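Quick sanity check, Methionine--tRNA ligase:
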Amino acid sequence: MTRKPYFITTPIYYVNDVPHIGHAYTTVAADVYSRFLRARGDAAVLLVGTDEHGAKIAEAAAKAGKKPKVYVDELAQVFRTTWEKLNIQYDRFIRTTDTDHEATVRTFLQKIYDSGFITKGIYEGLYCVGHEKFMSAEELVDGKCPEHNRAPQPYKEENYFFLLSKFRKQLIEQIENEEIEIRPLERKNEILGKIHQGLQDISISRASVPWGIPMPFDPTHTIYVWIDALINYYTYGKLKGTWPADLHLVGKDILWFHAVIWPALLMAAGEAPPKKIFAHGFFTIGGSKMSKTLGNVITPQQLIDKFGVDAARYLLLSAFPFGADGDFDWARLIEKYNADLANGIGNLHARLTTLAVSHVGIVLGWDDELSEIRRFRGRYEAALEQLDFYLAIQVIQELISKGDKLMNEKRPWAVEGEAQKKELHGLLQILAAVAYFMHPFMPETSVKIWGSLGIAEINEFKKMGKAVLRVHKIENLFPRIQ
Ligand SMILES: [Zn+2]
């Protein structure tokens, strides 16, 4: 039996949002992780997509004078283009309006209904259309949703309910014993604490929202948009034989849906829950929350325009540890770009290739550097296995500093001929290793570095110690930015 590929997902984003760095953060992280696994020789698949049903979309489409489907077709394309620009190597861009997804959602809900985990009841509450969720009294400020600055609508309707409360024991067990792994650990503890307080059954249908997937056993209701959206992971996984998901990457605001409601739905449908859910933190911009109202939203396109694609990817994941909250601002980004990329790898690469270009047939050396690079590789891989992108980047930066230090000690510019060649091969080995480690983060830069050394592809890393280089000069990898 062949092992199923490692299945990674990002949240499917609500099409009505403009793609911003929050979306890009999760998606780039997922891409880096899947590239890392593939480079190691593991099969990995990455699913991305858009969430397209619900009252908020119907409202926005009506405002734009468009049919909902026409409206979402345009918006989904914006996300797809953004991920292509950011060089995201996804296996499918799923949309909740895709016919295979709609069919899977109907079968899935029917299964839960047949198993007796769905009942009818009256829902009464306050619904924020902006959030597409019910708000509790504690969440409101002066009777308004603080995030959307509008009063939620009082809502009373006959709904179908999912009997979430029946899964309390199973959820606690599986989360505690890590059949469902929740990371970081403090998030796991938060979730367990909340489940221990008790689980309420949840409304999963709407009689008043026509823009959605009809309930299979009662087409007068549509399926609540969140339930419809969560099933996207299963739609792909089931079709491709990759279920269960190995890793759901999510922002911490939607962890409850992914770590509690989603596994319970799967259990109710007789399917395996996801293996791991990792919730990352949020960006503030110069100390304030990123918001349309404040006008401080940073888009992936702005990052790409300023720094280029690879540097944009790098800057997102090197800003602060994955899982924590952190701050982002233009001045700091420019500083980081110049320090790590222009002066760091860019400078080392330029100095080394300038010296090496006159030599024919330098063989990448292992020698003394070999064991040292192996140690770096061990730390780098251990960091990425924990999704610690921040630490993995620090290890890369240490290796670059190591290269700079060795260069100053060995002074290859002060000698000539064979003596120079001998000093260079160890240094070039470090450069090639840096390019290898950077590859998941900055794929184009790695290829450029290898190209300038005459190494054709990533697999040649494994041949190190044997590869014969044909070094040539290329343009500066990262010109300084003011
Ligand atoms: Zn709201």
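Posting the structure with no commentary besides this: The pocket of zinc ion is lined by residues 128, 130-131, 145, 147-148 (CB under 6 Å).
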